Amino acid sequence: MKRNLVVATLVVFAFSSILLLSSCAKKQVITEEKEMEAPAPEVAKVEEEKPAVPAAKEEKMEEAKIERLKELEEAKKREAAIDEEKAWMERRAAKFEAEAIYFDFDKSFIKLEYRPVLQEKAAFLKDYPDMRVRIEGNCDERGTNEYNLALGERRGNSAKNFFISLGIAADRIETISYGEERPRALGHNEVSWSQNRRDDFVLVR
Question: What is the number of domains present in the chain?
Answer without folding.
Answer: 1
